[in-house]
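Try this one yourself first.
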């Protein structure tokens, strides 16, 4: 019977989605696998002696299986997940094959230390990547590039034993919404999700691409949760100078489908073929010339995969903004590959055709600066393809793309000359200084007089766009003890946006001086290593204070603190320039030979401009708290603090002695954030000569990087 719209329904599906299911089912089944205990090496792969089914998974790239972390953790609560071997039974020709795989990583990383109880949900995103340990021929799914799914009809696949034998089956439902800040997708209750299907793929039937990984079913009936495949972008970042696991896998994924599309060795349908046969979407404003064809999309992704990956997430976002005409979706996870940028160009604003936006983006990528030498001819091949593809589109667009390409080539050549010293544009960053790009800003405010705190994580633009702030996430009413866990995911997202292949971005912690003892440098976010060991971390005074709190000297009635450079009698900019150039002179601000003291204003203002005031006592207690305010009001932008050691009787002399030697060896302030990171690394590696630096903090008030004067959160409504 037709429905209200006149579309005939078949087994709960529209005729369009029923046809899409028929087309996609063979491709998805061929790439979906059964996960179980590792084979003993002599078993018949067709037998049940591989053990019971733990769950499902699917090939996302040659040799790589994506599944859920709780699937590979089956039966091994006390076993470390990363490095564990599992069995993978997959489709091989007209039968099946079994191979051993090794778990390369799980998300989130904390699952290695903290597992949920039996029958409890594992923490999101609950993903695991398994590397196959033998060269086998297999199919791969096609992954979406969209940052968020569309709530349409989907099919989900996994291993079931309805007839007593393990087999891969598929069922259909609709997406009903998201959960976990977009990390999870809610599935409708049109059909039941069986236990062995966990880890299987969820496929968007309208677009023919995998959007999720089955995670859980509802205990009260049908429906459940899937994890968005976009969460793969949260894989641990690579060490400096290396390509990360996410980029490696997505590059292999795109080249697989590109090769399949170009191959004429057999006549089996590819994903690209099926994309071209899917029923058209109703009222698609970009149908026809407005969108790239499936073959063009596959080719473009393949050509982008041939290029070195972008240097940072911000590079991708900048090119997307230029092609789209507006700032892209700021919600996480950040785009990490050239392909991710395409996912931000769907349905551009203002009636702009999607194909035109993608071709503009591809043109800009063809003349971008790459993180490593490009394969000879790869960038020219991409441009040749763009020019040829534009032939079927509008003549004005062809001219626009040609001019865009010429401008890009000229700009790239100018940058290369500048980097070689033949056309210097501004001062070059000297060795050991901070990276010149965007930084991650963490702001924490006391919630009135209560012992809870509001927070915000943002990306602070470089000096060329001073004051530009892009929010990442925020929260309210967190305890000091709960801040590390609450901020783990937001900080990781901020680092993904700002880190480059050469450097780890600076973390700026803007808090009231009473919170300068907050041990942010000791928090572990990713990689199992403290933040202060991974990257430079500095402290900053906040741009404002919560209304209703006491205001120290220098605060305005509205709560915002004026900058020392605006005060008569102080010259913060001159002090900053002098201390950056060095040499450095340390001066104890809150103690004399270990005894507390309160520095006089006249004494502070009379010190040389290259002075670095040093504090060795607790920041939330006097006289140190007042001293921290006083040195800021006197215009000092570089100040050293310390969290006192646990033993209150410990002498501060080793700290002052070690710091004096460090400042003398550094010579200039611009290298201090990185040198302090190195000191933390040495202490973390158990170097006794660096133990004196434990708890050291660096206040870093760069006049060229002002904080936007915005009001903090006001708490719950």
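Now uncover the answer:
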């Amino acid at each position: 019977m037709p429905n209200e719209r006149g579309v005939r329904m078949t087994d709960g599906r529209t005729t369009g989605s029923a046809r899409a299911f028929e087309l996609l089912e063979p491709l998805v089944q061929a790439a979906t696998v059964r996960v179980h205990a590792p084979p003993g090496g002599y078993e018949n792969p067709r037998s049940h002696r591989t053990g019971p089914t733990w769950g499902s998974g699917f090939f996302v790239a040659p040799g790589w299986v994506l599944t859920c972390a709780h699937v590979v953790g089956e039966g091994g609560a006390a076993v470390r997940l990363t490095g564990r071997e599992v069995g993978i039974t997959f489709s091989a020709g007209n039968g099946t094959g079994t191979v051993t795989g090794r778990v390369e990583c799980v998300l989130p990383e904390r699952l290695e230390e903290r597992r949920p109880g039996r029958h409890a949900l594992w923490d999101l995103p609950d993903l695991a990547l398994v590397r196959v340990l033998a060269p086998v021929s297999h199919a791969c799914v096609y992954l979406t590039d969209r940052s968020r799914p569309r709530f349409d009809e989907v099919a989900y696949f996994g291993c079931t034993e309805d007839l007593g034998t393990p087999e891969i089956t598929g069922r259909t439902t609709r997406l009903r919404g998201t959960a976990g800040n977009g990390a999870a997708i809610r599935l409708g209750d049109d059909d039941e999700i069986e236990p062995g299907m966990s880890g299987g793929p969820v496929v968007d039937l309208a677009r023919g691409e995998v959007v999720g990984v089955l995670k859980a079913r509802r205990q009260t009936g049908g429906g459940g949760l899937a994890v968005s495949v976009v969460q793969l972008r949260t894989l641990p970042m690579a060490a400096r100078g290396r390509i990360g696991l996410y980029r490696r896998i997505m590059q292999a994924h795109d080249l697989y489908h590109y090769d399949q599309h170009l191959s004429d060795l057999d006549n089996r349908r590819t994903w690209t073929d099926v994309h071209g046969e899917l029923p058209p979407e109703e009222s698609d404003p970009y149908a026809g010339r407005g969108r790239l064809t499936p073959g063009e999309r596959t080719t473009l992704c393949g050509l982008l995969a041939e290029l070195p990956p972008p240097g940072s997430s911000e590079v991708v976002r900048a090119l997307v903004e230029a092609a789209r005409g507006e700032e892209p979706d700021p919600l996480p996870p950040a785009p990490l590959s050239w392909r991710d940028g395409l996912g931000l160009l769907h349905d551009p604003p203002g009636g702009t055709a999607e194909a035109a936006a993608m071709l503009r983006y591809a043109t800009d990528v063809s003349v971008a600066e790459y993180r490593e030498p490009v394969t000879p001819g790869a960038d020219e091949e991409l441009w040749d393809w763009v020019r040829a593809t534009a032939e079927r589109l509008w003549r004005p667009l062809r001219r626009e793309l040609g001019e865009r390409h010429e401008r890009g080539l000229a700009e790239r050549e100018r940058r290369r000359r500048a980097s070689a010293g033949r056309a210097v544009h501004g001062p070059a960053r000297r060795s050991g200084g901070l990276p010149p790009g965007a930084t991650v800003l963490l702001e924490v405010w006391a919630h009135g007089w209560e012992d809870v705190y509001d927070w915000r994580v943002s990306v602070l633009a470089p000096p060329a766009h001073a004051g530009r702030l892009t929010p990442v996430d925020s929260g309210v009413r967190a305890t000091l003890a709960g801040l590390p866990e609450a901020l783990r995911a937001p900080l990781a997202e901020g680092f993904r946006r700002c880190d480059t292949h050469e450097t780890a971005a600076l973390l700026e912690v803007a808090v009231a001086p009473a919170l300068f003892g907050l041990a942010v440098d000791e928090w572990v976010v990713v990689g199992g290593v403290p933040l202060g060991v991974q990257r430079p971390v500095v402290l900053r005074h906040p741009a404002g204070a919560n209304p209703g709190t006491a205001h120290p000297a220098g605060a305005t009635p509205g709560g915002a603190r004026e900058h020392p450079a605006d005060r008569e009698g102080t010259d913060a900019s001159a002090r900053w320039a002098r201390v950056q150039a060095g040499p450095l002179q340390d001066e104890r601000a809150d103690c004399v030979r270990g005894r507390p003291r309160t520095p006089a204003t006249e004494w502070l203002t009379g010190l040389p401009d290259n002075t670095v005031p040093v504090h060795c006592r607790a920041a939330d207690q006097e006289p140190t708290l007042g001293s921290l305010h006083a040195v800021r009001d006197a215009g000092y932008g570089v100040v050293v603090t310390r969290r006192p050691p646990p033993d209150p009787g410990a002498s501060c002399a080793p700290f002052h002695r070690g710091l004096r030697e460090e400042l003398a060896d550094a010579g200039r302030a611009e290298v201090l954030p990185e040198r302090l990171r190195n000191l933390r690394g040495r202490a973390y590696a158990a170097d006794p000569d660096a133990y004196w630096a434990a708890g050291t903090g660096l206040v870093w008030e760069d006049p060229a990087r002002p904080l936007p004067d915005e009001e903090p959160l006001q708490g719950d409504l």
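Discussion: The chain is about 30% helix and 20% strand. The mean pLDDT is 85.
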